[in-house]
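DATA SHEET
Item: assembly model
Revision: 1
Owner: S.N.
Input lines:
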Amino acid sequence: MVIEYPFSRTTGPVIGAFLTGLRERMLVGSRGSDGRVHVPPVESDPLTGEAVSEIVEVGPAGEVTTWAWVNVPHAKHPLDRPFAWALIRLDGADTPMLHVVDAGSIDAMRTGLRVEPRWNDETEGSITDLACFVPVADGEDA
Amino acid sequence: MRDVAVISFAQSAHVRSEEDRNEVEMLMPVVGDVLGKVDMTMADIGFTCSGSTDYLAGQAFSFVMTLDGVGPWPPIQESHVEMDGAWALYESWVKIQLGEIDTALVYCYSKSSPGDLPMVMTRQLDPYTAAPLWPDAISLAALQARALLDAGKITVEQMAEVAARSRRSAMDNPNAQLAWDRGVDELLKAPETIAPLRRHDCPPISDGVAAVVLAADGAARDRVERPAWIRGIDHRVESMHLGLRDLTDSVSTRLAGEKAGVAGGDLDVVELHAPFTHQELVLRSALGLDDHKNVNPSGGALAANPMMTAGLVRIGEVADRILAGEAGRGVAHATSGPCLQQNLVCVLEGNG
Amino acid sequence: MADLTLPAALRDVEAVRSVRTPARLDYRYTPGTATSRFLHAIEQKRIMGERCPVCRKVYVPPRGACPTDGVPTEEQVELPHTGTVTSFCVVNLQFYGQGMEIPYVSANILLDGSHLPIMHLIQEVQADKVRTGMRVEAVWVPDEEMGPTLESIKWFRPTGEPDVQVDIPGEDHGTGLGSWVGGSPPEDPRAAQTHGGDA
């Protein structure tokens, strides 16, 4: 039995800005009342609950704050070869976002690793416009 | 506040895959059992609340069909949560506090076997930025484990100890699914499945059912000798975004524990809903129970993890020991969402 | 809602307003013992209901439990392939996943000897000629297409027998919810009709 939903979701201006950024191959976050930048952006300030008012550019590179290594990828995973899930704190952001790192082998992964985005050839305004992150060549770890 | 107690608890023997029976057929004997233990019928029940999720069955409103199992005629007062049965218990407790009813039937169940459970659970994540990546439940738990290891808060040996102790305790639990006796050294020889987690750090996939009867004041005292009184119950939720949370500390469990009054006395038994070994260590720390000697005598979620049910089973396991006179005071915990996002803490006590 | 300031590079491009997030999950569904028995019988061109030991009602398709008494319904009852239309609707709208050519009739059919109607299709009659009380019989797919599925019954068609009176569920004992006018049931369901009720 197959359950299949062709969902098309409205985004609102904040998530819309994030996805517009992805379509333009740019990473953005939201700045809150205390000056902290959240990626992905949040619609309301986590401290005050007020609507967020500023979207700012972050990255493109960042550092891995935690990671997990998948030896046998599932058919639904973003990559079809062993890869790392990671929380990645982009330069200029205060919170990390979830994505994958195509590091090649578990030995190349570590917390603090500097990574940068690899974009799809075609972008449409979706989290999957980011094919993955890759280690920055000759990057200095955090 | 009214005095509300668990007066009866029943569960199925949890299995990897229930091949023959559907959810209604699995539920009926457990409901019969939980009511039968206290000589009650549906006519004695003021409110029924269930916990389950249709995503496990792959069928919209499947929980409505399961109501056949309790015989809802004449029409009953009934509610449902797309949550673990522990939250169905919370809703029932609130309704009793409002004075509208004196008794409630809480049931919950899951058949996880029909679907690809780790992938089904991705549907609870942020639909724009996380769910489209299909990050399965094990991978997300592994991110939390790595963060704890990096912070020096736990070691893989400690994780393996939790795995070994849980499955060894489960050997005394006829309803548990995974029960074995292996040493930490042997366990650590196994390869990492989704690093840093090994197979023993992860829960089994389980099909199972559980049910509880709640009763207030005299309705409880008249039916059992030692009701398991709920002295405190509270639940808190953290942000949906993993990056907005400190994955190495369960602040919601800490706060829920304070509000529920965990520290108000000695605890004879503790049942923590920790599907992953590292999560038991986080929860112990959040509740101030790092050295407690009687955690998860049932084996916990590492021995049987029926979705939407394992949390209520924790409450039931503590309640059963109080009802039987084996424990005086205990705490049960239930969790929901990735990496301990939402947590419920319940303190139960036997006297009075 | 407060205005949102954007980085310069995003100010003049068309904003993303929606995103496709298709989701697909595969399941290996277990129908349960009652439904399995029913479907195996269908494959043998037999329609089997189950009777509740308490209220004695016969349910088809059976679900293993009586929805009123909450007890297992194990007694097997073979039913004829004929029944009465208790309700129906004519579908005129196209929708995603639809298998039939519009307009078509979907109906509740009370098989003779059972107490809950099943839902199926009515064909071999013009849509505007279908009515409550119409007598119908099952039409099966060719033998080589038979399988353990309700689709082994292609549809129901009129038998040509005279219409029968269809009782409204609950009209003799009520639901206890007090929904009748004046709070009491009509003396005779047919008498209610002569006072301008449904034809």
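QC remark: Helices of chain C lie at 8-11, 33-43, 189-194.
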